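hi! just following up on the protien thing from before. the input was this:
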Amino acid sequence: MSDNTEHVVDQEPADVIDRAPITDIADEVSLQQILLVPWKWRNVVIGFAAVGLLLSIIYVIISPSKYVATATIEMKEGNNSNLLSDLASMATGGVDEMKVQMQTAVAVITNDSIALAVMKNTGMLPGGQRDVATGSDPRLADPEHVPPAQRESLIRTFKSHLKVASVENSRLITVSFTSTDPKTAAKVANEIVTEYKSYLLSSSFTSSKDVSSWLTNQLSGLADEVQRSQHDVEQYERSHNLSAEMFGLSSLGSSSGGGKQGTSGGGGVHIQELDRLTALNSELTGAAARRMQAEAVYRLVKTGNPDLIASASPGGLGIQTSPDNSSLLGEQSISNLTSLRAQEAQIRILIAEAGTKYGPRDDHMKALQTRLSATEQQIQLEIGKVEHRAESELQLARANETAIRGEYEAQKKVAGNLNEDVVQLGILMEQARSSRELYDLLYGKLQQANIQAGGTATNVTLADPARVPGTPYSPRRLLSPVVGLAAGLFLGLVFAFVLESLDDTLADVLQVESLTRVPVLGIIPLFDRTANRRYGGAGAVESSPFIVEPESPTAEAFRSLRSGLGFAGAGRRIRTIAFMSSLSGEGKTFTVYNLGHAFAAAGTRVLIIDADLRRPRQHVLFRVSGAEGLSTLLSGQGKVTDLVKQHTDQPNLWILPSGPITALASELISSGDMGKVLKEAKETFDLILVDNAPALPVADPVQIASYCDATIGVIRAGKTSRKALRRFVQILQRNRIHMVGVVMEAVEMSAGEYRYTYGYNIEAYYGKK
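and the predicted 3d structure came back as:
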């Protein structure tokens, strides 16, 4: 036996050191550890970034160029301000009337009617055919002839390319249209503005058509009445050889109409009966005017147009129905109707925006449609109230006219007792004057109503027409790849942190020491066995870096582990060491084999005992037969010195193979002969390294470890889980096994958590061979 090493001497096993129960201590996450996560999962991050960049490039290549043309219109304030503006302001709680008008304009521009009209005018509807002979424009299809499902699809597609928005703090509205053809984009945007202005014109005049027609018929009858009355006066004067100047009849009714003053200026004949008749005739004229106004308003209300109904105010037709200047329809009704119209416009704006964003079948769209239906029902209910009041006012006006006419007829009979000729002439003259006044009044108001009806259209001007764009709006050939790369990086980082949170494997020394409460004695870098061949033949791969690459980082790590084991016993010198792992495949056999090489290279006589009696591997690394070995000795046959085999390349390294595989491994080990085997081995060798089976599946390793001076746990970085290691340490504690430390196997030293956390770069120091 050689005594040239200070690593090992004979000694009895030390007492087991009591340790605190193992608990799962939460790792403190530092900023440095967080920053190392992307480096650890760099392949995932780079993969996501590459996919994002590739998808964005494909999108740029296959996506057609889209052009956006924008037209700008200005909503000017009209000069037809009247009581209707005040009522609108009251109904909206002080909201700017111009803001409501612009919101309404946005809703109207985005409605289906304008969309269909624009598609028809620009040839976007199916069915258009070009006359080749004349070269004229296509005969555009009628929107009503397009199948409903296809028409709805065309409208949705059209609106998805349309964007209408009001410019904040201004009276400007922008109309933008997107198309793959720049000329089409500009043409459609300008056509939308044109169609909107046409809509305003046609809407105002169409809504007032019925009322204007009725007023025109009434004026035509009044014109005939004026001519007939004047003719009757002239005819009566000729037939009776009379003149109005003879009796001062020309001053009849002058007190109300101005002209010649009979009462104060003298020169006129005053007949009490005729004065009374004149007063009644004036009242009858006013009653007839109020009855006509009430009938006009009633017919206007019958049209069902809320805007025209609102105009039926004292500022609308301009004829009062009562001395207190109250509206025929009532200010409260007008206020409610105007308020509901403002709400309807706002809901339509929300529907237009939601239609582009969610589609017609979305629950949000259904809710907005329900609100719109409810508002429209309230508008119709308010119109019903207005119609009822208009009808009541009309009946009251008719009754008032009938009553006054009755008094007038009765007064005519009284005046008939006077000189029939004079009275008759005065009557005819008064009728002629009344007819003329009523005709002039209604004619002026009809012209004013027609001018105001067209005033809305004149308040819209094209501030900036859409021009043919020169550059596409999308795809952005430079921006899209950048966005795709950024999105890929972001998703890659998110996925990397998700993987990190789900990763239960151990890859950090601090994590291992917090779970085991023992130091990490060595960090063994990953050794590529397939790239280090020494012997020829199939499967001839040498697993020891001491033979194929003695200056490699892995060989140096085992030398460091050899030095560290000299201090692992806390003053005690260890002769027998059991190596254990929680599960198979964690590098325990590789660690024992190469640690034996490290000690043997220092002059220590080392024996490796393969105590895995179920799946032995050490004899494969030594390239010797495993037919006889530990199981043979435990059965009471042979001696240690007879069954050990020397390594072909390292004279100080021997192996005791496992021997025949048996199902009674636990029984053989618990028989007590294991202690005898170790005692006999220590008589010949300086250091015994025992390679055990995994500790979690079987009980053999715990039994063998109880005969050894110390136990070293082996874990594989990136494979051994926290749960497995925790269970492994609990088994050792429960059986009072002395574990002096842990070895981390197959560590990827190029990973950021080792390259930067521990402050060195092994590959850079040793270089790659």
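The chain has a mean pLDDT of 75.
Residues 363-415 form the longest helix (53 residues).
cheers
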